[in-house]
């Protein structure tokens, strides 16, 4: 029976891949910036496996994501910046610090804290307060503070929109109730239609793009009010569309028909049949 590899083995493998004399040519060519796209792709593949309920392949996808972290740590160790053990130590200390209700003594060996009666909202308030304290100690007060300062620019657009809105909400800049967000969504849809109808040059899409962006931003805001993650909702819609479309293709093929070239009435009827069939099987 083959042995089970450990975290130490993975770190040793990464060091071998980056060995200047005997390492892998591709791995030796990489740097921090070049592997960022791979990290983003692996993150989305983890999310996709979870969305599809593909838990048989989830360990493999999580392993790929872990390898990205190991790669960064190896690059940093080579440059004398930090090592993998520093990452582990740092995140462990941070989690202990941000969970005083679990680790009241501030150590991993703390006696169990008293979390009875605490709600998720209480935990979030504590988390945000501790994060703010940490940021202050790092010298954030040296520049004018904004409620939006810690929203990462590189996030996917839907996710960043949600975070921007949450930060603004914490300082009172928010809609008072959900119905008003629905009204705003309809208003933005009307403005988008107007911009589309009034554009004099079909190649000049700035106004349409601007209004479409406003519509999507409000849609994300609405998702927040409804307690739904917009990014996750769109991934779910993508999966649903793909399932139904493939079903429609299969039904037409079984009937000896082609999808391309059909009129809109025929396509709509085929789509409705596929919706019923695919949703019944899901």
UniProtKB/TrEMBL annotation:
GO terms for biological process: dATP catabolic process; dGTP catabolic process; dTTP catabolic process; dUTP catabolic process; response to stress; TTP catabolic process; UTP catabolic process. Belongs to the nucleoside triphosphate pyrophosphohydrolase family. Its EC number is 3.6.1.8. GO terms for molecular function: ATP diphosphatase activity. It catalyses: ATP + H2O = AMP + diphosphate + H(+). This is Nucleoside triphosphate pyrophosphohydrolase. Pfam families: MazG. The keyword Plastid does not apply. The keyword Hydrolase applies. InterPro entries: MazG-like_dom, NTP-PPase_MazG-like_C, NTP-PPase_MazG-like_N, NTP_PyrPHydrolase_MazG. The lineage of its organism: Bacteria, Pseudomonadati, Pseudomonadota, Gammaproteobacteria, Oceanospirillales. The gene is mazG. It comes from the Bacteria. CDD domains: NTP-PPase_MazG_Cterm, NTP-PPase_MazG_Nterm. Residues 30-103, 184-244 form the NTP pyrophosphohydrolase MazG-like domain. Keywords: Hydrolase. It comes from Vreelandella halophila.
